[in-house]
Predict the structure.
Amino acid sequence: MRKIIIALAITAITAVSVNATILPDEVKNSITKEFPKANFRFDGVITLPDGTVYLPLIPSKFDKKDEFKIKSTFPAGKSLSQRPDVVIFSNDYVLMRVIVDEKGNRSLAKLTDVPIELRMGLLPQDMLVPANLSIPQNLKNIIGNLEIPTSKDSLVTTPIVQPKTVSENTINSLAQIPELKNKILYVSTSFSKNIQVVNPEKKIPEYALQQNHIPIMIKGYDDRFLLETSYGKRAVDIISLADDKVIKQIELKSQPDEIVMDYNNKLAYISAPDDASIYVLSLETMTLKRQIKLNGMCEKIVLSGDGTKIFYNDKQTNTIWAVELDNEYLLKEIGKFPNVSKIAYVNGKVYITSRTQNRLAIVDYATVSLLSENSVGEKPVDMLVDGDNLFILGASQNSIEVVDTSRDKLTDTIMLPTEGFSTRINKIDGTNLAIVSDAKAGKYIILNLETKAVVAANPIATPVTSIVVANKIKKLGK
C-alpha cells in the first residue's frame, strides 16, 4: 500500500523578504481609470503605456477622511490624463513624473515653493530608482536611505564581441516564424555567468546581462521580469527587463534550484533540495508566501496544468512524490523509479521518463498503479504537455516522440535538424509553437505543436541551456 502523509511543515514567510510597496486602491483606480494598461511594479514604480514613469511619495501620515480626489497638480490645473509633473491626492499621496530631456537626462520637477505633501513624503525604500535621476536640492528629503544609481553602475550589461567564425549576422528564416517578430530572447548557458540578450533576427546576441554566478534556471514573467537561480547563491534574483538590472534578491536558507511558474494564479514555485523545501513566491509582490517542507531532496519539479499538484523526485531515494496544493499540501507517494529525467501529469496519469533506461512509465494517479512501461528514444531529457499530446524530447538522437495520452499511443516522431545535444522544450506563451534549446550546437529550434513539424532552426552564436521569449519593452525612463 502506497504511503500518504501530510507535508512535514507549511511555514508562512514573514521575515525572509522585504515587503512590497502597495499603493492604496483609490490611487491605483484613479490612474487606471485614465490609463487602463498602466503598470504598477512591486517596488512602487508606475509606468504608463507610452513609457511615462511616475514615482510615488508615501505620506508620513495617511489621511483619508475626506472624499478622494486630486487636490492639486504642477503645472496647476492639469488633469491626470495630461501627465502633469506632480500630482497630489487628497490622501496626501504624491506622484512625481520622471522628466526625460532630449539628451536622456532624468530629473524631477523643480519647484520654487515645495508643498507640504512633498516635504513630508518619502519614496518607497525598496524602490529601484531610475539611474542618474537628478533630484532638486529642495526635494532631497524624499530620498531617505535610497541610493541613486549612476550610469556606471545602473545597468548590468556588457557588449558582445562578434565571433570570428560568424561572418553573416542576419537570419533570413524569421519570416517563417512571425510569432517571433518584436520579441527578444534571454538565453543562459552552462559555461557563462552572463545572460545573453538576443534579437531573433540576429545570430549574435545584442548584449548580455552581467551576473556573478552561472545561472541554473531563468523564467520570465509578464514580459517585465526574469526570475533566476544560480549555482553557489542562496537567493533568487529578480531582474527588471525595463532596467536590465537585478531589482531584488530574495534570500533563502539554502541554494534554490528549479522554478516552475503558475501564471494563472501568479505564483512561482522554487525548489531548495538541500532544505527539502519548495518555496511559494507571489509574482504580484515578488515576496515569499510560504515554505512547503517535503520528504527528501526535491528535483525535477513540475506543476500540473490545473495548478493543483506539484510532482518531484527525491534524488536520494529515487521516489516520486506529489504535493496536493489544494488539499492542505498533502504528500502522496507515487513510487520508486530509476534515473528519473522528467515527470509530467495529464489526464489523471503520471508520466515518468528514465534517462539511462530509455523508458516511459505511466502511473494512474488515483490508484498509484503502474499502467504500462514503454521504450522511448535514447536519453529522454524533457517532456511538454500540450492538450492530450505529450512531447518527449530525446537528446541522443535529437528527436521528439509524440504520445496521445488519451490512448497512450505513439503517434509521431519528429527529427530535429541538429547534431548537438537538445536539452529543453518549452511552449512560447500565446502561440502553438515550442522552442527547443540545444546545449551543444549554436542554434535553437522552433516546433509547431499543432502540425508537429519543425518551423525553423535558427542559428545563434552561443549554445543554449535555457531560453525565455519576451516582448520587446521600452526601457525605464528612456
Summary: The mean pLDDT is 89.
